[in-house]
Write a structure and sequence with these properties.
Layout (H helix, E strand, L loop, with lengths): L3 H14 L5 E2 L15 E6 L4 E5 L5 E2 L4 H13 L20 H5 L10 H12 L4 H16 L5 E2 L1 H10 L1 H12 L7 H12 L1 E3 L1 H7 L1 H4 L14 H14 L5 H7 L4 E3 L4 E6 L3 E6 L2 E2 L6 H14 L7
Antiparallel strand pairs: 1-10, 2-3, 2-9, 4-6, 5-6, 7-8, 8-9
Bound molecules: glutamic acid (GLU).
Length: 309
């Protein structure tokens, strides 16, 4: 097996030199300002080691990667009852598709497309003011990362609120089908804020460890969720974590992952590693272009795949 530290350094160098970096998301104006040259990677291993390369300590907007954490919290709150309001099938459609929601009468395909994540956020709002729900989500992520400096980038949240017409449409549409219990603007306010959580690759890799280790934090041994629930979240990440590029990601990389339009991807190698990568330029499916490529190369070099014997 090659030395992981050497592999990461070589990959970071290779990625820094590549000209084909994809397009930075500009539909959220604040994200459009990020330098596409940025690249970071962090790998948290089962034995507690953390290996990093590139801009691994620079916070970026985790965007849809936050949907893993809100899903985890919502399942803790309502359990399997969640699946009455959200499906578990890959969408095969863009992350903000409205057509699909009409066909499926307001029940989103899965918890990782925007409509599904807005329903999940609505679940977390029950019994809370939006401010409290946002605080609960942020504290959970800080707890997982074992780092209180994880923060919400208010400028990114405001930027998305100012331009999030499609998400407003999705939320209103679901409310019309009685699949939203709160006013759309309240659910969206919480949604925009959790998407605006800013983390470094190092913090993100730390926060994904419970998924790599059967629901337990490897550093404390404490259980965050049950092993069964961790497996199910990983199954959803594999089948739905990259929107209409999920099949291709599974084919190329072979591990569960979740991307965000900020250019981050959290990838999990069960029992072995929690990996966070960040490169802001996106491919045609809205997933980090170099992030996907580097994960494919890393998985190949280390022989990491959930399909390996
Ligand atoms: N906040 C983004 C949106 O709702 C999340 C999309 C993503 O990261 O894929 O459009």
């Amino acid at each position: 097996m090659p030395d992981l530290e050497t592999v990461l350094a070589a990959l970071a160098e290779e990625m820094a030199a590549r000209p084909d970096r994809g397009e930075v998301a500009s539909y959220i104006p604040q994200l459009g300002k990020i330098d596409p040259q940025r690249f970071g990677i962090a790998v948290a291993l089962a034995d507690g080691r953390m290996l990093v390369a590139g801009d691994a300590d620079e916070p970026f907007s985790i965007q849809s990667i936050s949907k893993i954490f809100t899903l985890t919290l919502a399942l803790g709150k309502v359990g399997d009852a969640l699946w009455r309001r959200v499906g578990r099938e890959p969408s095969g459609n863009p992350f903000n598709s409205i057509i699909q929601l009409e066909h499926e009468r307001g029940i989103p395909r899965n918890p990782f497309i925007n409509s599904g994540a807005i329903v999940v956020t609505d679940v977390l709002l029950a019994g809370h003011q939006p401010r409290e729900a946002i605080g609960e989500i942020l504290r959970f992520v800080q707890f997982l990362a074992e780092d209180d400096t994880v923060f919400i980038d208010k400028d990114v949240a405001a930027s998305e609120k100012a331009t999030g017409y499609r998400n407003v449409a999705l939320a209103n549409y679901m409310r019309a089908f009685d699949n939203l219990n709160h006013a759309p603007e309240l659910a969206l306010g919480v949604y925009f804020h959790h998407c605006a959580i800013a983390m470094s690759c190092r913090q993100l890799a730390l926060s994904g460890r419970f998924l790599a280790h059967g629901g337990k934090s490897p550093s404390t041994g404490h259980s965050v969720i049950s092993p069964e629930r961790a497996r199910r979240i990983l199954a959803l990440m594999l089948t739905c974590g990259h929107y209409d590029g999920s099949g291709d990601f599974a084919f190329r990389v072979g591990i569960p992952g979740k991307s965000g339009v900020g250019g981050g991807i959290l990838g999990i190698v069960p029992g072995i590693a929690s990996i966070a990568v960040w490169s802001p330029g996106l491919n045609e499916n809205g997933n980090s272009r170099l992030g996907s490529i580097v994960l494919e190369k890393l998985a190949k070099a280390m022989d990491w795949s959930i399909f390996a014997p």
